Amino acid sequence: MVERKAWSINGFVGIIIIAIFIFGAVYFITRAQIIGGIILAVIAALLGSGITIIQPNQAQVVTFFGKYMGSIRESGLFLTIPLSLRKTVSLRVRNFNSNKLKVNDVEGNPIEIAAVVVFKVVDSAKAVFDVDDYEEFVEIQSETAIRHVAGKYPYDDFNDGDVSLRGNSDIVSEELAKNIQERLSVSGVEVIEARLTHLAYSTEIASAMLQRQQASAILAARKKIVEGAVSMATLAVEHLQQDGVLELDEERKVNMVNNLMVAIISDQGTQPVVNIGSLY
């Protein structure tokens, strides 16, 4: 089923034509030509059944005794096929906000996820004839795509370089929109955008995963501190040797580096110990 243009003419021209037939019917009846008047009146009534009004950003799907005759997309007053049935389809951009879905990410962690899908109808024939209810179809297929995409990625990136739901929302949203579009192509609907609106661990594991995130953050910070401490200790020893301030053997180098590392890495302020020599 592919949308095509239905036959139609300007509605005001159609009203003028109908008015002419009505005046003709009245004229024949007043002249005692009853049969001619009835025929003209029937023609006027048939043409009048084809008058339709279309609002902006709407389309009317025209069927004639079960056969699809085409669609009218222009707004205004039109005269189309008489005795036809016309179903109005909105072409406006609309939003669908999914419910909060409870799914498992790729690592099996239960999470809560929701998304908003921005869409519009681009083929009125497919929207009416290829699916039973295209709005319900959008809702069900969107939630199915959300579950599918959520199950492909971890909630958080605990390994550097991995794509995660929380850390790569743009990539996830792009794939979600593509997945939804593939599912909705049969219904004549175009997906404009899809974005996550809610993402969280399920309540039963939220506290445990929060501790995991905190531990990962602490480890990452410690790693940076250690890298900086090693660089600073190495630089201090090199400068002392280059300037000739101290002549250090390997044992003293180890002790100095050890003291510098402890002073830099320690969570609490270090207490300096001053060596003043022996009192006796």
TrEMBL record:
| SMART domains reported for this sequence | PHB
Name of the protein: SPFH domain-containing protein
Query: What residues form the membrane-spanning segments?
Result: 7-28, 34-54
Keywords noted in UniProt = Membrane, Transmembrane, Transmembrane helix
InterPro entries from the xrefs? Band_7, Band_7/SPFH_dom_sf
Occurrences of domain Band (ranges): 49-213
Report any Pfam family annotated for this entry.
Answer: Band_7
SUPFAM superfamilies named among the record's database cross-references: Band 7/SPFH domain
